[in-house]
# Entry
Amino acid sequence: MTSDYQAKKQFLASMISVYGRKPVLEMLEDHSLLIHKLHLADSNKPQGIIKDIIRAAESRDVEILYHDRKSLSRISRNMKQDQGVVVDVHNPKMNLLSKAALKSTEKTGQWLLLDNVTNPQNVGMIIRSVAAAGINGLIIPRQANASLNALVVKSSAGTLFKAPILLCDTVSEAIEIIQTQGLNIAVLAGEAKEDVFSFAATDGVGTVYVMGNESEGVSKETRKAATHALSIPMHNEVESLNVAVAASIVAYATQIS
# Structure
């Protein structure tokens, strides 16, 4: 692969397409964000909030492209909810997962990996916890998890543009890259004897903690690849926690020394 191709691939990976009239206007009015392009349905009438969106884009010299509804839906991937408006936002904190991305901090690094977390609100809340806890990053395989869209941006309370995020295509690809770096792969299991607090406090090797599907948990393939199974201590006969709550606990547990 040429350096130009890699640079283009990285640039596209760092792009988030946000749809919906109000979310798009908020993106355009936030001058801390790097706006790439504004996409509008050619059926939109230039009045009301659409007029405000166009004015905000023009004031920032953002390129405006017009599409028919079918073409726009291929960009938003949600014709029912895009309201004829999509904006491409560059996120410098979002990069492609690679050996190099993990290598610099592999001895002490701590990451979360999402394994089929399909609820956008949960993904957004997990991103917020990753940003707040200050861990090395969140690994998101695109084919197995909720898309990074307006719902995720809203649920993250804007921290999507502050949390270090590493993207790849599949969970199996992520596992392969993680294994080549010799990192621990820890999955949560209610029956596990070792808990996440004692493990995070004593283990000296970089670790990737896997957060599984909301109802089915971590996939069988990922469990087979895991080097550790950890539990979150719970009382009063509570059997499980929401994945976003569990991720928040894990993220902060990794910071205990």
